[in-house]
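Journal club prep, notes for RB
We'll compare a predicted complex against what the paper describes. Inputs for the adenosine-5'-diphosphate case:
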Amino acid sequence: MQFKKSIITAAAALAFGAASASLFAAPVTAEGTGVGKHGDLTVAVTFDNGRIQDIKVVSSKENPILAKKVFTELKDTIIAANSTDLDMISGATFSSKGLIDAVNDAAKKAGVTLGKADKKAVKKAAKALPKNATYDVVVIGAGGAGFSAAITAKAAGANVVLLEKMPTVGGNSLISGAEMNVAGNWVQPKLGITDDSAELHAKDTFKGGDGKGDMKVINVMTHNALDAAKWCRDYLKVNFEADNLFFFGGHSRKRALIPFGHTGTEFITKFQAKADELGIPVITNMKAEELIKDKDGRVTGVKATMNGEEYTFNAKGGIVLATGGFGANKEMVKKYNPKIDERFKTTDAPGTTGEALYMAERAGAELVNMGYIQTYPICDPISGVIELIADARFDGAVLLNQEGKRFVEELQRRDVISHAILDQTGGYCWVLWNDNIGKISNTVKEHANEYEAFTKQGIMTTCDDLKCVADFTKMPFDQLQATVNRVNSMTGKGNDKDFNHRAGLMDLSQGKYYVVKAVPSTHHTMGGVRINEKAEVVTKDGKTIPGLWAAGEVTGVTHGTNRLGGNAYTDIIVFGRIAGAAAAAAAK
Ligand code: ADP
């Protein structure tokens, strides 16, 4: 038990037999611990006359973005209600439980009994929002595109609000690997890459999407990528790995910058910090329902709902739609692409349900390329989320079927690999790599949480030799050994006679070996609202809709049939900034 000064004072007084009522009235602080999503969560709670006065988080391993509301809203409500008998924050239930348990523990240690929640006090603690408010720019959707737009608009002097339907911000941008393709970036020369260009990046993007993307829009993305990345690095203070890049399938050069931690947390944390610094209100649990147009057809606002109550946000300059895709909406996925059926899980954040696409359509936007839905080939067979640990594939991990054979080039396009996997026995594959590859990728260390979770779930193991790999996966050992021998005989660029591995196979002769089971999941919806190169939303007749811009996964003309890895972050930041700047300029 650890008490802070005040309780020690009270306890010392007790020890001297001075237990008078006035002494009990002195505020006491006790520490308590609960278990959150990522481990112990410790708080220091100050009580005065049996009422909670303050809660301070002493230590926590929770994701600062996903748990933000727990440490603000839920914490404030616990204080206001003097109770932990409260609802969890949806989307952050484990962190909520961790906080509640920690406060209960502290109360027990301080000898305080907390009662039922005072409903009136809880209601009073909820912030009152005006039912009708006017801003220069209203941005809908707090993922990477929305934050980029809101921050750019605010920095340009506009009065901005950012609306998010979920309890937490980040969308798919948060859970993404968040690599960002930038031709001519500052890391490339360190790796000897001096012949990349925005033109080449545009060509790869167009080709990767089977020529269905809009080359004008693609060119804007690739030519503004470096500036966007510098904005992230220098203005937002996003940390990128200094000496390492990702080489995604379909790219002719290694060009993807890698954020620290290899996930979108680095970006979203910095986006949120900048939004806080600039004073941009980010209203969560606020779902945009209907765009408002004036008599001339200009979009002038949006009707939104929170807990069933309607709110109107008027926009003098305009609206930026940044609501992401629809990969988590099974019905919508099947409607637009019946081939992506029940066998597919999804990698997507739960808010990726696409109703806002219909909202845009009702306002006149053309929806294009809706049937092009990307599956991510290497995902957790239990939850559907991307196995970032298996990114060792980009550095030479091989894909094996249940028979122990390779069946596809590991750096093929995602759609090609996904369908190849579904054609194998059981519709899954195994990803195998060793320390030789691991020392470049380092994914086991980078994604320690996944490593622990997958190992516990029984879909991953670590072995000293191939016999152990065969025993775990139940692959025939002789075939596994033969496949690995063949891989070892074809290492190096240009030597893979079987599947033409474009970066070159790596030697797999020595352990430790890492092997994880994987299935494809719905990942990115390429289709969406048609935009032009200024991020303006376009109608079926090719006219722009005044007052309406869109950026990110909600748009449908950049990636054609298939988005190349690392292009989502480039897309959301480039077009988020363009849309935010244009909407801010329109308000002047
Ligand atoms: P992008 O990568 O294009 O930024 P994300 O998926 O990262 O897309 O972010 C989109 C965000 O928009 C998600 O957080 C999602 O919950 C939110 N969103 C989707 N529809 C609505 C809506 N109708 N109103 C408010 N927010 C929405």
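Talking point for the session: The first helix runs from residue 5 to 15.
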